[in-house]
Amino acid sequence: MSDNERKFNPIVHYANRLACRPGETFGPRVIDDYQWLYVEKGKGEITINGQVHPVESGCLLGYGPEVPHRISADTDDPFVLFGLHFAPDESEYVDRPHHPSVRNIEHSPEIVHGSSASDDVPNALIPPCSLVGSWALPFFEELVKEFDRRDEYAPLALRAAMIRLYVRLRRTANADSAPTRRNDIVERIRTALEKRAEEDYRMEWLEEITGYSHDYASKVYKEIAGTSPHSDHQRMRLQVAQRYLETTGLSVTEIADTLQFGSIHYFCKWFRRMSGLSPSAYRSRKRMI
């Protein structure tokens, strides 16, 4: 364990999820803290200190203060991003404003199309770009949910959630990542659940998908994915609801009907429990990453 890892005592300044529009771009810009970006789905390019990184679902990116970067969504399949602004050591940022400072910079070839980049830049404790997979998604969802709570316990909960995420990242990087039959089961289940995200969860799905009993398939899924199939399906259903709120003009009632909730009251209660916000409040949030 490095000295930086031993001192890791993060303070989260901002956390959100953004479904980017086709071709939407942020920057070139710099920030005054550290940022991790996680790609939930879709595609795009993220340029960090002159290096262009084509990204897709499951990619994790990181950079530090004053590191030039640009975020560009694909025109056909724009990505959905989680953005996390933080400081690795709370003591170094005790007097800073809560909201991160983002500053656009001049468009220049060395920033956007550079072929090489200096290693002497803050690296946010992770590689500039890596493919970590879908297991990280629940961690980022928890961070956004805790950030939106904004109560007296939120800073502590955010620190704990980020430490858990970082530990999992380091352990995963050190573990044997060879694919196994159990991983294949998880991917088959996850793919099927995504296709049925607008439906109510049914236990018989797992037997249909895998040929194993629900209990065995669910156990394997939870051991590898870190959450149950039902919880993952709830998360996927929330993503569908968020996408309707972000990209369509459907009313909250129409979205509740589309997702087969039966009543707007139940849908709103479920949405707030899952995301920490009401559907209307989620729809009106500022577009930022």
UniProtKB/TrEMBL annotation:
Instruction: Write one Pfam family the protein is assigned to.
Output: AraC_binding
From the UniProt record, which GO molecular function terms apply?
Answer: DNA-binding transcription factor activity; sequence-specific DNA binding
Q: Which residues form a coiled coil?
A: none
Q: Where is the HTH araC/xylS-type domain?
A: 187-285
Keywords from the UniProt entry: DNA-binding, Transcription, Transcription regulation
Q: State if Cell cycle is listed as a keyword.
A: no
Q: Spell out the protein name for this chain.
A: AraC-like DNA-binding protein
